[in-house]
From TrEMBL:
This is Nitroreductase. Coiled coil: none annotated. GO terms for molecular function: oxidoreductase activity. The keyword Flavoprotein applies.
């Protein structure tokens, strides 16, 4: 297939959502490189609407995890999907960590004033996850953590400006026990020639 020998395409295909991390810190230099890659994402009208919060404090991450689990569980109650059922069981366990034991959480926040903020920050997040993969660092976008947006105490502790919202909470770290990657379906596409 075309592109198989292309380093960028190989990196894109190597990226996966890691849900098991070693108790090993990620260097500040690596985190800065990952965030720097993020800010090269395209933005509507050149707005660059992002703001980043880096959390390494395990106690704070545990409090956030404990706060978010019941919120998500309540939202998932009526969804009959098998994958959701398994995840609901995990969320029900007191010791389950929505951050999967990762040493670092980077929260990508977006300005409420931006017209294309959600898209811009999602592209920034993807750049960050690809950069992490290229550095041998695992990542996972943890949507569950978006519930911290509803908690004034967390928003204040994290120093999040009042005019920003949580878009992409992403954990980073070195992968522990590797899990296989789910195969991808063939893309559905219509060609107009």
């Amino acid at each position: 297939m075309a592109g198989e020998d292309n380093e960028i395409i190989r990196n894109i295909k190597a990226r996966r959502s890691v849900r098991n991390y070693l108790d090993r810190p990620v260097s500040e230099e690596s985190v800065k490189a990952i965030i720097d890659a993020g800010i090269y994402a395209p933005t509507g009208f050149g707005s660059e609407p992002w703001f980043f919060v880096v959390v390494q404090n395990k106690e704070m991450m545990k409090r956030m995890s404990d706060y978010c689990k019941p919120k998500l569980l309540a939202q998932l109650q009526d969804i009959p999907n098998d994958n959701v059922t398994d995840f609901k069981k995990q969320l029900s366990h007191e010791d389950f960590d929505v951050f999967y034991g990762a040493p670092i959480l980077v929260i990508v926040l977006g300005s409420n004033a931006g017209f294309t903020t959600d898209y811009d920050c999602a592209m920034c997040a993807q750049n960050m996850m690809l950069a992490a993969t290229s550095l041998g660092i695992g990542s996972c976008w943890v949507g569950t953590a978006c519930f911290i947006q509803d908690n004034v105490e967390f928003m204040s502790e994290l120093g999040i400006p009042y005019d920003y919202r949580v878009i992409a909470p992403i954990v980073f770290g070195y992968e522990g026990k590797a899990a296989g990657r789910s195969p991808r379906k063939e893309p559905r596409a219509v060609w107009i020639r």
